[in-house]
Amino acid sequence: MARRPTRSVPTVIVPGWQGSGPGHWQVWLGEQLDAGGREVIWPALPDVDHPDLDGWLGALRAALVPLPETGYDVVAHSLGAVLWLHHIATADAAPRPDRVALVAPPAPQTLAAIGELAGFTAVPLVIDTVRRSAEGTVLVGGDADPYLPDGIAATYGRPLKMATTVIEGAAHINVEDGHGEWPAVLDWCNRDNLAFF
Questions:
Q1: Distance (Å, whole) CA 15 – CA 92
Q2: In the chain, what is the straight-line distance between the N-terminal and C-terminal CA atoms, in Å?
Q3: In what order do the strands lie in the sheet containing 11-14?
Q4: pLDDT per residue rounded down to tens, the chain (197 residues)
């Protein structure tokens, strides 16, 4: 019988606009990790329907304070992934995660077009900052994501010189797109290597 994955570091799950409600893959992921004995941290993001960048940054940083200097993972979806990019551009490196998965970050022009999200528009895309901010970061997106009209590779992968995993038929990778349970992200959390697949 194959050996089960044994990764046991804490996992920070960063939701996006309007949070990760019932049936969302992030909620499912948190439940699966918790059932496996993993520590799961959810930043207490204020007013998820009307996000404020400063308020969200404060909540994210407060959630990171008790974590070890290294030895944790981050899984951020949609606006949460954009929040992570703002965080690493404006904060010192500690505590620094081992691995980060940025899933379906919306394009800056999409953020600008949605009034509640306009404060997040100036997404910092600095290659060295992303590389220094974690041992490794992966980008994951769906094809035909309405929040990424030019695609995740063109919008984030090429500017950051990062390999990007594009999942066919996944769109924005949310409940509406059939991602309530998402075994691939659980598999990523449970193994040590960075590659998503």
A1: 22
A2: 21
A3: 40-41, 11-14, 73-77, 99-103, 136-142, 164-167
A4: 344 456 899 999 999 999 988 899 999 999 999 999 999 999 999 999 999 999 999 999 999 999 988 899 999 999 999 999 999 998 776 799 999 999 999 999 999 999 999 999 999 999 999 999 999 999 999 999 999 999 999 999 999 999 899 999 999 999 888 888 999 999 999 999 999 98
Structure tokens at 188: 């990523």
Provide the pLDDT for residue 176. Answer: 86
**Taking the CB of residue 125, how many other CB atoms lie within 10 A of it?**
15
The three-point CA angle 18-19-23 to 5° equals 115
Q: Measured between alpha carbons, how far is 14 from 48 in angstroms, rounded to an integer? A: 11
* Residue 133 one-letter amino acid: S
In CATH, what number does 11-189 get? Answer: 3.40.50.1820
